[in-house]
Design a protein that fits this description.
Length: 144
C-alpha cells in the first residue's frame, strides 16, 4: 500500500537540502542535492512508518493536504533560517515493498530435523537456509 506525506525540501545556502515532514513529529533528513534528498526522504519515511507499525503497533497519522503546508511558518517554529529556498513535495513509499529490499537483515535460527533427512539433503546439495525461506514464504502466502 502506497503511503504519501508532504515534505518540505529546504535548499540550504551551501546547496544541500534539508527535508522535514511536518505531519510526522518533526521527522527530518538531508541530502547533498535534491535527488539525494528525495531518496533520503523516501528512506526516512519508510523507516518511520515501518517503525510505527512494527515497533510501536501504532496507526499511521493522517497526511495533511499539501496546500496546507506553510514552509515559512514551519521554519519559524523550528527557529530555522539557514535556507535560501524551499519546495513542498509529496513523498510516497510502499513501506512493505521497501522493507523487503532495504530493512531485511538475516538472523540465525536453529532448527531440528531427523538425521536421515539432514543426510539426504546434504548429499543432494540442498541449501537449508534457502529452502527454509522458500517454504516459509509459501506457507505465509508471500510467493508470487
Amino acid at each position: 500500500m502506497l503511503s504519501s506525506y508532504p515534505a518540505i525540501f529546504y535548499k540550504e545556502k551551501d546547496g544541500t537540502y534539508s527535508v522535514s515532514f511536518p505531519d510526522l513529529n518533526y521527522l527530518a533528513t538531508q541530502g547533498n542535492d535534491f535527488n539525494d534528498a528525495y531518496a533520503m526522504a523516501i528512506d526516512c519515511l519508510a523507516g518511520y512508518l515501518h517503525s510505527l507499525k512494527y515497533d510501536d503497533n501504532a496507526a499511521y497519522p493522517a497526511p495533511s493536504n499539501i496546500k496546507d503546508i506553510d514552509p515559512i511558518a514551519y521554519a519559524e517554529e523550528l527557529d530555522y533560517d539557514d535556507y535560501q529556498d524551499y519546495i513542498v513535495n509529496m513523498v510516497a513509499v510502499d513501506v512493505e515493498e521497501y522493507a523487503k529490499t532495504h530493512f531485511n537483515r538475516s538472523i540465525r535460527k536453529s532448527i531440528t530435523i531427523p538425521e536421515w533427512l539432514n543426510d539426504l539433503a546434504t548429499q543432494k546439495g540442498i541449501n537449508f537456509s534457502k529452502t527454509l525461506q522458500e517454504a516459509l514464504k509459501t506457507k505465509l502466502g508471500l510467493n508470487k
